[in-house]
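User: quick one - fold this with adenosine monophosphate bound?
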Amino acid sequence: MIDTENFDSLGLIEPLMEALRSQGYEKPTPIQARAIPIILKRKDLLGCARTGTGKTAAFALPSLQLLKTEPKPIEPRSVRMLVLTPTRELAAQVEESFRVYGANTGLRFALAFGGVGKAPQAKALAKGVDVLVATPGRLLDLRNDGSLRLDAVEFFVLDEADRMLDMGFIHDMRKVFSYLPKKRQTLLFSATMPKAIQEIAANILIDPEYVSVDPASAPASGIDQRLYYAAKEQKRALLIKLLSDGSVERALVFTRTKHLANRIAAQLNNAAIKAEAIHANKSQTHRTKVLAAFKSCELRVLVATDIAARGIDIDELPHVINFEIPNEPETYVHRIGRTARAGSTGIAISFCEDEERPFIKAIEKLTGNQIPVQFLPELPDVPALPILPRGPRQQAKPKRTEVKEKTREPSKALRKAEPRLLGAIAREDAKREPGITRAPEQGGAAQRGQSDRSSSQRGPADRAPMGRSPSERGQNQRSLPPRPERRPNLEGDSAIRDSIAAEIRNATGGFHDRPSRPSLPGYSTGPERREERQPISAQGRRSPTPPPRKGYGDQQPQRG
Ligand code: AMP
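Assistant: Sure. Structure tokens for the protein plus adenosine monophosphate:
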């Protein structure tokens, strides 16, 4: 039985326990209690968990232990462990976590992402490292120019896989999978489990265990959600009113577009409210600086697009404001999850205009809760939003290609995996949300299990390898829909700064400079903090019944 009350029962080695003590972590979070033993047993893992649940330590601690206790010489330009994340901010945070948790292991770590100079990253990889945390574009650049080899990877973590797809990284991901050795341990984490993620899981994981906590369909319990119905032209005045009358002290404001983020930030500054915009067209240096200012409370308002804000860990953020309602309900859950992180409390305020009412309906359907509507206060007169010139890059930027899940059928590998993998997902869902049947895209195993197209009906065109060739896996795979040979320019062009990695580390976590990392209340800190806050939901939930230990399909997939 897993003891969720302390780390001792997890069998972690002393250097890691020492790091945990120095961080003030007293007991594992549910994802840690469940994932660590599985990973230590060398099993592949499919984890349904979002940031804020302690998932980084859940994969970092056991893999650091395996790297430390099973040392191997590292070839130049090689890495033993690769962690792939969708955004630079998340990559920087994850690498920082590895440094913190692995501080006493003597292992070597590196970070690689675009928008900053490649040479220092290539230099850091020259002698080889134990752990590399990278975003897909820069990883492929480094590999393609010979600065990096991926043929010695023993541990591969795909973090925030659903966001990778949203950001159009499927093509890059497939390339990365194809460069990895067959013999490896793979861990896939995703906040949601849409069909496309299950397909990827079926292709890159072998006989995985499934662990799910705190699903993205359920906002953290400490979030007080509020809704204002306001006309488009009233939203700016409402924002200024809330920021001026003392009801909102510091806020992360979400917009759908980069241009609107810029305009709102400009208008707030005109109203003497210190604000900055953060999005993919801003240089990495700017993003880093602004994020650091916001985290240190120097900056009151951060106006962000979803991609820029995804996964960033901002402690004690009391307010999230949805200036526009996202059209995907899961995005709403992700957005408001920026507050009430790690079990704390927060307020999420949404401004909804008429056209956005259907989005609110979809959100309420997903979360199963009605968002309480607030009376619109008397609003101040505010000048029109400033018109800002659109930069040439914004105009020229191509539209991202989204992965069209709805048009795709489950692959053969997925259909074969269904009774086990999807059964486990369904059992988790049923435990968590009794009575709620989830749509196929949300992990509804029953519906997905009924593909009527048998494998014999599929032609050769349906088969394409992903990560491992059909013969290697002992089964044919159906390729995902083709997409243009283009990578979205999500990372911006910024001034090249050799020292940027260190700067990012300070700005996005700054853990070296702080006495200890922020802890999950209810898990580690002193009694006063424990009293103030609720522990993370799903705490103490037990593992689902482990699926039968068989490979996907009838034939056991082979590992190199
Ligand atoms: P993550 O979900 O990995 O982004 O972690 C969210 C926050 O929880 C980070 O600030 C971690 O430092 C913190 N944290 C992770 N594990 C624990 C734990 N067992 N006890 C207390 N805090 C933790």
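One thing worth noting: The first helix runs from residue 14 to 23.
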